[in-house]
UniProtKB/TrEMBL annotation:
The chain crosses the membrane at residues 7-24, 60-82, 94-114, 120-138, 183-206, 218-235. Keywords: Cell membrane, Membrane, Transmembrane, Transmembrane helix, Transport. The keyword rRNA-binding does not apply. It comes from Leifsonella bigeumensis. Signal peptide: none annotated. Belongs to the binding-protein-dependent transport system permease family. Pfam families: BPD_transp_1. The keyword Transmembrane applies. It is found in: Cell membrane. This is ABC transporter permease. It is a multi-pass membrane protein.
Length: 257
């Protein structure tokens, strides 16, 4: 697909939606739904000013730290649990118990234990976003081809070498699928943690604008969250393309043969 077509597909639907939005707001003005022009002006007034430093940057930093911790912990624990059958049997009931708890209900608990700090908000992100990475990693490690495992043992490839050259590459498709899911969950939990126990950040700002009936400003915060989601998706696709380059090449060879 050419670059022109990619750009057209990427911006075509948003432009169409903005056009429909503009047409629907040509009539009597609705207090709760700003026009595209009004929202665009408000967007730059709010987020090109002090709010960018006091709210946007802290939220993004917390999100990045939380997601990095989520991915590292999820992969490390997933590889460990997936490598030992007895450990899987031991931890499975506990994992199912904690996975069933909705992460937002942990916010009051973290507020009591940690306090309304950045560490609390990062802990909320990790507590909910880790499950797709952890469980996908466990399943990916369990699904490693037994023939390849036995071959590596025959050639005395063990320890870190086996992990690096066999286990992680074989499990990487499922790991990346889990990472992709965790990104959106992390963004949601970032907002929730700031709404409940924050004095700054995007979630706090959106609620503040909503309570003060600053409707265009509230919408502008929602637009910022959507743009962060798009950026996370693009980064995820780029990382997945690099990590799974061998896997996609193998699939193309299998399809052509």
């Amino acid at each position: 697909m050419s670059i022109v077509k990619r750009v057209a597909y990427f911006v075509g639907l948003p432009i169409l939606l903005v056009l429909i939005w503009w047409i629907l707001t040509l009539g009597p003005k609705n207090f709760f739904v700003p026009t595209p022009g009004e929202l665009g002006q408000t967007f730059f007034e709010v987020w090109a000013g002090p709010r960018f430093v006091t709210d946007f940057i802290p939220s993004v930093i917390r999100l990045i730290i939380g997601l990095i911790a989520t991915i590292v912990l999820g992969i490390v624990l997933g590889v460990l649990i997936g490598s030992f059958r007895w450990l899987r049997s031991l931890t499975e009931p506990l994992l199912e118990f904690f996975r069933a708890i909705p992460p937002p209900v942990l916010v009051p608990l973290f507020l009591l234990l940690i306090g309304p700090t950045d560490q609390m908000r990062i802990a909320v992100i990790v507590s909910g976003a880790i499950w797709p990475v952890l469980l996908n990693t466990v399943e990916g490690v369990r699904a490693v081809d037994e023939v390849l495992v036995n071959t590596s043992r025959t050639y005395r490839i063990d320890g870190f070498a086996r992990l690096r050259h066999l286990v992680l590459p074989a499990a990487s498709p499922q790991i990346m699928a889990g990472v992709r899911q965790s990104l959106s969950i992390g963004l949601i939990l970032m907002v929730i943690s700031e709404m409940f126990g924050g004095s700054s950040g995007l979630g706090f700002t959106i609620v503040l604008y909503q309570r003060s009936f600053a409707i265009p400003e509230m919408w502008s915060g929602i637009i910022v969250l959507g743009l962060i989601g798009i950026a996370l998706s693009m980064i995820s696709k780029a990382a997945e393309g690099m990590v799974l380059r061998w896997y996609r090449g193998l699939k193309e060879v299998q399809r052509d043969s």
